[in-house]
Amino acid sequence: EAGVAQSPRYKIIEKRQSVAFWCNPISGHATLYWYQQILGQGPKLLIQFQNNGVVDDSQLPKDRFSAERLKGVDSTLKIQPAKLEDSAVYLCASSPDRSSYNSPLHFGNGTRLTVT
Amino acid sequence: GESVGLHLPTLSVQEGDNSIINCAYSNSASDYFIWYKQESGKGPQFIIDIRSNMDKRQGQRVTVLLNKTVKHLSLQIAATQPGDSAVYFCAEGANYGGSQGNLIFGKGTKLSVKP
Lengths: 116, 115
Known about the structure:
The structure holds 2 protein chains of 2 kinds.
Chain A: E1 5-7, E2 10-13, E3 19-24, E4 31-37, E5 44-50, E6 53-56, E7 65-68, E8 75-79, E9 88-95, E10 106-107, E11 111-115
Parallel strand pairs in A: 2-11
Antiparallel strand pairs in A: 1-3, 3-8, 4-5, 4-9, 5-6, 7-8, 9-10, 9-11
Chain B: E1 4-5, E2 10-14, E3 19-25, E4 32-38, E5 45-51, E6 56-58, E7 62-67, E8 72-77, E9 86-93, E10 104-105, E11 109-114
Parallel strand pairs in B: 2-11
Antiparallel strand pairs in B: 1-3, 3-8, 4-5, 4-9, 6-7, 7-8, 9-10, 9-11
């Protein structure tokens, strides 16, 4: 099966600019996640969708970050305006249902964002 | 808050030797634990998971051990190969409730395999 697709692979922007990332999950996966991975750290959940509804966005900085999954398939994550500390790899993951034992997350290769 | 952490940030082993990567966790309510492997420029890749009611689980060349008494998790890789070189993360999760699906990741251990 095709994996989780993300684009772009790399993005360099100046602070205060806006940026958007796109994710196409594995076909049929109901749950989609966006994680932020700062260099040298483990991924941190930003937002979790179940179909087109938000399940958990408690760690999403809502003053600057937004995400949508309008048709329950593809998703976009936007940052506006970007700050230097937003430099990180943004990982998208999907699973058939909400992650549980024997139903792990499948990750894409991420978008590496550099804010200068 | 609750967190998952690792004892050793880097580990260097000789090809063919066994590797042991350790992880400490603090949330005794977690239902399962997962090990992920992340190669440079790629997303984390699932290796193996274990339920909280188990002590040991084996896969192909990998074994995960769970010690709930001391809240310790380890990943053992047998006959380590150059392709095993990567960063390894442990993560914990819940099977139900509002936190289901929210995996909490540790910081990672970099494994380097010397030929």
